[in-house]
Design a protein that fits this description.
The complex is a heterodimer of chains A (about 250) and B (about 100). Chain A is mainly alpha-helical. In chain A, about 80% of the residues lie in helices and about 0% in strands. Chain B is built from five helices and no strands. The model of chain B has no long low-confidence stretch (mean pLDDT about 90). Classes of the chains: A mainly alpha (about 250), B mainly alpha (about 100).
């Protein structure tokens, strides 16, 4: 049992390294935003350590700079981070029902886009030891990057920042591409999601919508449509998948 | 009146934490409803896809290096390469392409 946990922790650490690298690059720019909002390096680092959310923090720094009302900050924070509510729901089905409260409280603290991504990609149930491995590598990158971003501003060479900025997207692809290969419906759904996301960003009608809102609206609409059109039931998930992958192979 | 930065941070932290932790702590059983189950099954793929595209094309210095990163990541992930390999390879492609292009 101990041995398994150690193995899970190590496998989590391995998946956490690219997350930490990507976080470092992204949070560096977050630190610059915090500095522009008049925050100290310590304040920015505390924010990152506690909140772990890029869009939420960006909005927060902007509102702090504007000396916005506390209630306004609360509402905007809830809107920007609403997608984590859905991710948390999905994770509640991925962990064992017997998982203790303390584990749930800790895993919940680190529901981020990326950590959620690798957690969902785990085979079978998600074990807390794996999550802690990921967090141990990812979380320091986020806080440290923010801290240094405030202190040394634009010292990270543009070339390096640009290259590191795709680390997170590459990771997302590593999570959603393999199921797309297995399951034709997931593949089609990803295609539709790409297209919808593109149009949402480009059409003047929607261009005023923040990316946090866009993500949650599209996620709800498209996932619900897929759930109604192509329901997956527990027993059928495995057999259905086999049937579909058989087709997908041609 | 000057507002307190740490109070701002606290409000942000508490709001965000509640959003993240409530479903995980309150939903303790397996959900039986097929539609809800299916919805939650599809959620991760839609969310991750929407976050990736077209953002990846805009995160790099040129559109082409972003596109190359996406194609690289897709190709390697399709072949079942590990998360680490996929992620780092797309970074390396961007770095090399931008050395040549920019």
């Amino acid at each position: 049992m101990k041995e398994t946990n150690r193995k899970l922790f190590r496998s989590g650490m391995r998946d956490g390294i690219p997350i930490g690298l990507g976080y470092f690059a992204v949070s560096f720019t977050l630190g610059i935003a915090a500095k522009n909002a008049g925050m100290t390096a310590l304040q920015a680092a505390v924010t990152s350590a506690l909140i772990n959310a890029s869009a939420g923090e960006f909005i927060g720094f902007t509102l702090i700079a504007a000396q916005a009302g506390y209630l306004e900050v609360m509402v905007m924070e809830a809107v920007a981070n609403a997608r984590y509510l859905l991710m948390s729901c999905a994770l509640s089905q991925k962990i064992s029902p017997s998982t203790g409260l303390l584990h749930r409280l800790l895993i919940g603290f680190y529901v981020t886009d990326e950590i959620f991504g690798v957690s969902i990609a785990e085979k079978g149930e998600l074990k807390p030891a794996y999550s802690y491995g990921v967090i141990s590598m990812a979380a320091p990158g986020w806080t440290l990057g923010t801290f240094l971003g405030v202190l040394v501003g634009n010292i990270l060479p543009l070339r390096l920042a640009s290259a590191l900025s795709v680390a997170l997207y590459g990771m997302f692809a590593a999570v959603f591409v393999p199921p797309a290969k297995e399951n034709r419906i997931v593949a089609a759904l990803i295609g539709v999601s790409f297209a919808a996301s593109f149009f949402f960003q480009k059409l003047p009608l929607f261009s005023g919508i923040s990316s946090g809102v866009k993500i949650i609206v599209l996620t709800i609409v498209l996932s619900l449509a897929a759930a109604l059109l192509f329901p997956v039931d527990r027993a059928g998930e495995e057999s259905g998948k086999d049937g579909i992958s058989g087709e997908a192979v041609k | 009146m000057e507002r307190n930065v740490y109070l701002y941070i606290l409000i942000m932290a508490v709001t965000t934490y509640l959003i993240r932790v409530l479903p995980l702590t309150l939903i303790r059983k397996e959900i039986k409803n097929v539609t809800v189950r299916s919805f939650l099954y599809y959620v991760p793929y839609v969310t991750l896809a929407v976050m990736t595209f077209p953002a990846i094309l805009e995160s790099t210095q040129t559109f082409f290096s972003g596109l190359a990163a996406l194609i690289t990541a897709w190709g390697l992930a399709w072949r079942g390469k590990s998360l680490f390999t996929v992620s780092v390879s797309s970074c390396v492609i961007v770095f090399i392409l931008e050395l040549l292009l920019c």
